[in-house]
Amino acid sequence: MTDSASERRHMAAQLASKGVLKSPWLRGAVENVPREQFLHPGVFLDEGRTWRPVTALGTDPDEWLKIAYSVDTLTTQLDGHLTADRADEPVVGVPTSSSTDPTTVVGMIEALDLTAEHHVLEIGTGTGYSTALMCHYLGEDNVTTIEVDPQVAARADAALETVGYSTWTVTGDGLLGHPSRAPYDRVIATCAVRRIPYTWIRQTKPGGVVLGTVGSWPWGTGLARVTVGDDGAAEGAIIGRSSFMQARAQAVTPLAGDLSARTAYADSDRPTLVPPLVLEEWMPAFLAQLAAPGAQFVRASRSDGTPLRYLFDPERESFAEFVADGDGWTVRQGGPVALWDDIESALVAWQDAGAPDIDTVRLRVTTASHLYWIDRRASLRWEHRLA
Ligand SMILES: C[S@@+](CC[C@H](N)C(=O)[O-])C[C@H]1O[C@@H](n2cnc3c(N)ncnc32)[C@H](O)[C@@H]1O
């Protein structure tokens, strides 16, 4: 077996020089944990429209190490079942499990502020690489990790054993946490959730931290870090941009078929004050998800090339259709909720406040609701009730 010590040291140095890797213990973990052991049977490399399968066994050992230590997300499963050893040629598919980009993993672990006696719950084991980094410091008994996909969990468990960690790898739905090993000092989710499940707060000690990506769009999602209080509520902030595959039960199915049929009957139409194209930017997209949780953004065009954009909220049976109109856009809205009115007023208030970045957003989670705010203005506060 080719030894990867120099690749591990090189990756640690790269992450440290980027300012992501700061703690000496985490540097020790990155230098010690062999990422290639977590990539069996192989990975899918992104080729734009298709994914090229590359297996450990079928690849030159030096080339395999180069892939394993690229500071990139390495996709290990497509469409909830396909692994690289089962594909002979490039395939199309949607990534459903991966070893996340080490910059993101290390940045998130740093944000946990771990001390050696902490007990951690990880949601989304994936390959088990991030689990191993934490086990290196905390010990195998202090890390519990949950993976929803039994095959992925079994592979991660085997890889963790291979590198010497008989940790608690649980197969199950991480949205429910894992009560039998609670309470935890830290909860970290490496899949995105629409909102932080209250079970994670309940299973965390007062003073403990919950860290996870919130949102349901492929972009415009934020890394929430909340501290649990004595009163059972948790409060904190969005500490930066973050992008992860969605928790499986919450994955959004792309809308298909004739969209014009879904928007045939509008209740109103008017010119927009803000072009809908701003929703293609990160912070406006995050605001849109705060103002209209449940809405999906869809890009399309008419057969004559006229650009179209849509917002659909299937649960609230509402839509907004945007049609390019000269220099501006017209919005047609239908259904009980005027989605664009809500989003546009958030965008206007945000622009008036000087367009602050995502890390100015604060968050409070209770059993009853999620409250997000930027400042005291009512137009920059959004309460999502759970009832
Ligand atoms: C991006 S990968 C995890 C990356 C992993 N931590 C690593 O660095 O190797 C996300 C994982 O979350 C898992 N997942 C999705 N929904 C889940 C859920 N509800 N509970 C537990 N795991 C879930 C997926 O199956 C996938 O393996």
What's the gist of this structure?
The protein is an alpha+beta fold.
Annotated CATH architecture of the largest domain:
3-Layer(aba) Sandwich
Q: Give the N-to-C terminal Cα separation.
A: 55 Å
Strand content: 25-35%
Q: Determine the number of helices (DSSP H or I, runs of at least 4 residues).
A: 10
Count of distinct strands: 19
Largest sheet: 10 strands, mixed
State the low-pLDDT regions, or none: none
N-to-C order of helices and strands: HHEEHEEHEHEHEEHEEEHEHEEEEHEEE
Q: What structural keywords apply?
A:
single chain; 387 residues; alpha+beta; Rossmann fold; Double Stranded RNA Binding Domain; 2 domains; 10-stranded mixed beta sheet; 5-stranded antiparallel beta sheet; 25% helix; 29% strand; binds S-adenosylmethionine
Molecular structure report:
The protein is of the alpha+beta class and 387 residues long. It folds into two domains: 237 residues, Vaccinia Virus protein VP39 (Rossmann fold, 3-Layer(aba) Sandwich), CATH 3.40.50.150; 98 residues, Double Stranded RNA Binding Domain, CATH 3.30.160. The protein is 25% helix and 29% strand. It is built from ten helices and 19 strands. The strands form four sheets. The chain has a ten-stranded mixed β-sheet with strand order 7-6-5-8-9-10-11-17-18-19, with helices on both faces. It has a five-stranded antiparallel β-sheet with strand order 12-16-15-14-13, with no helix packed on it. The radius of gyration is 22 Å and the shape is globular. The mean pLDDT is 96. The structure holds S-adenosylmethionine.
